[in-house]
Amino acid sequence: MKAILPVAGNGTRMYPLGITTPKALLPILNKPLILWSIEALQKNGVEEVIVVINSGEFGEQIKNYFNATPIHGIKLQFAVQDKQLGTAHVVQMAKDFFEPNEEFLYINGDDLYGPKNIEQVMHTKGLAVTGMKVKDPEKWGIFQVNPEGNLVHVFEKPSEHVGDLAAIHCMKLDARVFTLFDQLTPTSRGELEITDTLNLLATQSPIKVLTSNDYWLPIGYPWHILEAAEALLPKIHSQIDGIVEANVTINGNVVLPKSSTIKSGSYIEGNVVIGENTTIGPNAYVRGNVAIGDDCKVGFGVELKSSVIGNNTKIPHLSYVGDSILGKAVNFAVGSVTSNWRHDKKNIFTPVKAQMIDTGREKFGAVIGDNVMLGANTLIYPGRKIWPGKTTLPGQVVDKDIQ
To answer: Which one, of 121, 113, 72, 79, lies nearest residue 96 by Cα?
Structure first.
C-alpha cells in the first residue's frame, strides 16, 4: 500500500513559527510533525509514501531533512506542487506514482493521526473515509451518510444542520480520483478541493464512512502545538538516562537522555520530554506538560509551565514561561515574563492574518519565533507573538505582536 502525504502548504496561520521552518518540520514532542505521520503509516505496513512538497525553499528543507535523516523500511518519493491550488490539486501532483485503479491512503500532512485510525481505514474493504464527531459542525466539512453507512455528500462548513461527523481526511481512495480532477469547479478562493472529488466519487462507487477510533489532532494554529503536547505527553513512559543531581524531585513521567542534566534543587511536576545536551536548573520549576528541545538551558529560578521550547533556546534565570511556544535559538532574558491569563477569565484572542482569532484557551502565553532576543524584564501580554530575529528593549511591555 502507498500513501500520499501533502506538506506543500506555506503554514501562514502558524506564524511566526512557520516563517523560517516548514510547518512539516515543526517539533511535536521534539519530533518533526511529518515524522509522526510517516511513522504512523509505517506501523500499518505502508511501504511507500509520496510526499507532496512545494517548489520553494521549504520543499528543499524537507528533502534535505530526509537526506540527513533517512527513514529505514519505507520508501519516500517527492512530488512538487508549483502553485497552491487546493487539496485536490495536491493529490493530482502524485498521479504519476500510481497505476490505474490502484488504491492508496491519504492523510493530511499537518494533522496528527493515531495509528488505529490508519489501521481501520486501511483494512476496510473498498474505499473508506474517516470522520469524528464534533460540537461545532459549522467549522468543518461534514459527512452525510446513508443507512448503509456510505457517503452521500460532504458539506463544507454547513450553515444548516446536516450532521456532526467531520471529515478528518484519513481515507483510502483509488486512482479514479485523478480522472475526476478535470470535472472539479474552483471554490470562491480559486481552489480545487478534495471534498468535491469525494462527492463525485461517491456517485460512482460506495465509500464507507468510518468513525475515528483513535486521536486526531489538527495542527492549524500555534496553540494547537500545546494541545498536541497536552494530549500526547501523558502517554509517555519515563526513561531517565541522564544525570539527576541530589535534591531533585520528580513527580510525573520524564524522558531525559544520557547527554542531559537536571541540577540540584529542581522540581519536575508533570510529564516532560527533554532533548539532548540540555540542562535544567539548578532550582528550576518545571510543571505541566512540557517539551524542551536539544541544546537548551532552563536555569536558576526559572518556572516553566505547559510550554514547548525549541532547540538551542536559553532561559537562563529568574523568568516565567507559561503556556507558550518558543522557537529555536531564543534568548529569554533575565526577569522576562509571559502573561498567560486574563483577569476577566475570558478566552485569549490573538491576531492571525489581520483577524482576531479565539484560541479557545483561558491560558495562553506567547509565541516567539526563531532567533528572538529579549531585553531584561520584558513583559509579554497573553496571546502576543514575536517574529523571528526581533528584539525587545529592557523593561519593554509587549502588548501587540512584534513583526
So the answer is: 79
Q: Which CATH class is domain 2-218?
A: alpha beta
Mean pLDDT, range 285-289, rounded to an integer: 98
- φ, ψ at 251 (rounded to 5°): -120, 100
Under DSSP, the state recorded for 11 is -
Identity of residue 304: L
* Count of CB atoms situated within 10 Å of the CB of 316: 15
> What's the CATH architecture for 229-398?
3 Solenoid (2.160)
Q: What stretch(es) of the chain map to CATH 3.90.550.10?
A: 2-218
Residues of the chain with CATH 2.160.10.10: 229-398
Q: What is the pLDDT of residues 301-336, one digit of tens each?
A: 999 999 999 999 999 999 999 999 999 999 999 999
Q: Determine contact, residues 237/129, Cβ cutoff 8 Å.
A: no
Q: Residues near 232 by Cβ (< 8 Å), separated by ≥ 6?
A: 28, 29, 112, 217
pLDDT given at position 90 = 94
What number of other Cβ atoms are within 10 A of residue 272's Cβ? 25
- Report the alpha-carbon distance of residue 290 to residue 309 in Å, rounded: 8
- Res 6 pLDDT > 90: yes
Flag whether pLDDT at 370 surpasses 90: yes
